[in-house]
Amino acid sequence: MKIAVIGQSLFGQEVYCHLRKDGHEVVGVFTVPDKDGKADPLGLEAEKDGVPVFKFPRWRARGQVLPEVVAKYQALGAELNVLPFCSQFIPMEIINAPRHGSIIYHPSLLPRHRGASAINWTLIHGDKKGGFTIFWADDGLDTGDLLLQRECEVLPDDTVSTLYNRFLFPEGIKGMVQAVRLIAEGKAPRLPQPEEGATYEGIQKKETAQINWDQPAEAIHNWIRGNDKVPGAWTEACGQKLTFFNSTLTVPGSVPEGDPLPIPGAHRPGLVTKAGLILFGNDDKMLLVKNIQLEDGKMIPAAQFFKGAASSALELTEEELATAEAVRSTWQRILPNIPEVEDTTDFFKSGAASVDVVRLVEEVKELCDGLELENEDVYMATTFGDFIQLLVRKLRGEDAEGECVIDYVEKAVNKLTLRMPHQLFIGGAFVDAEGSKTYDTINPTDESVICQVSLAQASDVDKAVAAAKDAFENGLWGKISARDRGRLLYRAPPSPSTMPDPTAT
């Protein structure tokens, strides 16, 4: 079947590629004009294949379709228009032109969440089910007949990005290809959308994303995650606008200790803790925010809100300088409109988008074998100089939240001084057991007492389990790939069991 693909983004690129693999002839691609010297991925891919690419800045003028646009479109002889993701308004003269009409991908279960911010509102409303719809285009706003729908579970801590990357992107590509296949086979349904349950919500913008604190914790959490990353849920506090990201409801146990953060209108002050910023709903339940963006645009871990200025700049070794230059070349490739990448060059202000974040992370991880790097790190260090400092600290193993304080017991054995921790290790810190309870640990060679070791109580076990659960659900280890975990294990020092026993005679 002869197809015209109208749209943009990586999603549009993947749909285009899969349609060609499925044997269809893409006779033309219509995408957005280049931005800051960068072409859209869909257009780039089509140009590589020699497919005609059109980048109309507009399709109509004074309410009338532009004749030259219609002429160029009609010359292609398309039998079907496929709109995987399109931010432009396409005239009905183009929509209705092909023999099979036009189909559109929409990231919600229509008729719920019509409009441009459908994923945001799926999360804001706390929907338990999400998904996508492929429908026949008409002259309404996401009101055309249904062709195909697929649904998925919405997880409690899903954000726009996680829901999109886990389901809406990969399954949406498959869905578009299947929809075209059904049309080609003459089996595509046209099911009128029901009006019962239909909703329409407007585009989420920064000015409308302010947090309403007079609601339960779950509703506040849904508002924050529904606006993460764009446009970002915000509030006024400490004399500036703070934007919150990476929210979770999985805060275990009682209220942790922390420094209070007064928030006008909030039910209770927030608490800046080691884990992040604890916020409270009007039901006294808690949520945890991991990242905060300051008014100047700088993103910081919420746990560091009261810690002041960052530590002094590192002096790089020759090897680290060589790595920095290699990374600079990566930035330059991703930001072709920038004549020269300097330390003050801001990744996002130079035209980078979320797709470029993924590319940067993958290329730097490949360059720095075994490095744990996440998309969040790019948002935390947006200028090249800050990114290199963050990168080098990670390579040196200095990126931990703080030095682990260990109260060692020292013992002289065979002319060696052994230093042994004797406390419980919970949540990344050595701590005494509740009530400072201890027991003697015995040297099996002579039955002498080596030292007193903390004796965990039931409450200590509860804390350890809660900390392990939080690390499993929210920690870095579960997010990095199996390949990177393997590299880290190979880099780990040998365990004490592989070392000579100093007490042996």
TrEMBL record:
Cellular-component GO terms for this entry: cytosol
SUPFAM superfamilies registered for this protein in UniProt: ACP-like (SSF47336), ALDH-like (SSF53720), FMT C-terminal domain-like (SSF50486), Formyltransferase (SSF53328)
Enzyme class: oxidoreductase
Domain spans labelled Carrier: 318-395
Superkingdom classification of source: Eukaryota
GO biological process, one term: one-carbon metabolic process
Keyword list, A-Z: One-carbon metabolism
Catalysis performed (reactions): (6R)-10-formyltetrahydrofolate + NADP(+) + H2O = (6S)-5,6,7,8-tetrahydrofolate + CO2 + NADPH + H(+)
PROSITE patterns: CARRIER (PS50075), GART (PS00373)
Record EC number: 1.5.1.6
GO MF annotation: an example: formyltetrahydrofolate dehydrogenase activity
Family statement drawn from the similarity comment of this UniProt entry: In the N-terminal section; belongs to the GART family. In the C-terminal section; belongs to the aldehyde dehydrogenase family. ALDH1L subfamily.
Entry protein name: formyltetrahydrofolate dehydrogenase
High-level lineage: Eukaryota, Metazoa, Chordata, Craniata, Vertebrata
